[in-house]
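INPUT
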Amino acid sequence: MASHRIVLCGVGALGSTALPYLRNVAAELRLVDFDRVESKNLAAQWFVKQSIGKNKAEAARLQLANFYGAKAEAMGVRLGAHNAAQLLADCTLAVDCFDNADSRIALSEAARAANVPLVHAALAADGTFGIVRWDERFVPDREDAEGQATCEGGEHLPMIGLVGAMLARTIQDFLSGSERRDFMISMTSVMRTA
Amino acid sequence: MALLNITYQGQSADYELAIDFATTDADIRRIAVEVVRSGGVRGLHLPHLQPNAFASFVVDRLTGPAGEQRIFLRPKVPFGG
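OUTPUT
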C-alpha cells in the first residue's frame, strides 16, 4: 500500500503530461482540475479523443486506470481558499501545474499553512523554456498581457514533455528521500539550479 | 560575486566573468544585452540583439547546490495548465 499521497493541481499541459511518468510512484495520486477536455487540448495535453467533454481530473483518472491499471482520485473543482485545506489533507506532497499566478499563489498559501511540501512546474509562453522549482525559491510570473499566446499549440509538446519528465523525476527523488532539487530546462540544457 | 546565466529563445549559456550578486535587475538586463551582442557568452552570440530584448525577463538570484551564487536571466514562465 502506498505510504504517500500526492495532490497534483492543474491537469492541463504540464500536469497531464507528467502523469504517465508518475504511474509507478509509490504514492496515491489526487488530481485537481475544474476544467473540461476540449478538442484543441489533444494537441498538447495527455488526453485522447474519448476524453473530450470530460472533466480533466476525471479524464486523467480514467486514462491512468484504463491504460496502466493505476489508481488515482479525481477532484473536479477549482482550488481556492474555501477548499484548499481539504484538497491538501493527508498529502505528503503538493504539485503545482496551474496556468496562472493567482492559482499558484493560492496553492502556495494553502501548502505553507498546511505544512505540505510544494513543487512548482512552469513554462514560458513560447514553449522554449521551463522550470521545476520548490516553493521556498519560487515566485510566480504573470503574463505580460492577459490572453497572451500560450503553449496550447502542439508545436511545444516536446518541451512540455521535457519539463513534465523532469517534474516527475523531481517527485520520484523527493519520495525516495533525496533533497529538493530545482531545474531549469531549455532547448540546450537541463540545469540544476538548487 | 556570481556567475550570470542567460536564457534566450531556448538557448541557455553562462557569462563567465563574475558579476556582483547585488547588481540591480536593470543593470543585469543591460549587461546581458551588451555581452550577448559582443560574443562574450559562448553559444549565445547575437550581434543585432534589440536593446529591450530582456525587458520582460526575470532575474533570479539563487544559491546553487555547491553553495555558489548564481544569477539567472530568463523568460517569464506563467504557464502550466
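end of record. Residues 25-38 of chain B form the longest helix (14 residues).
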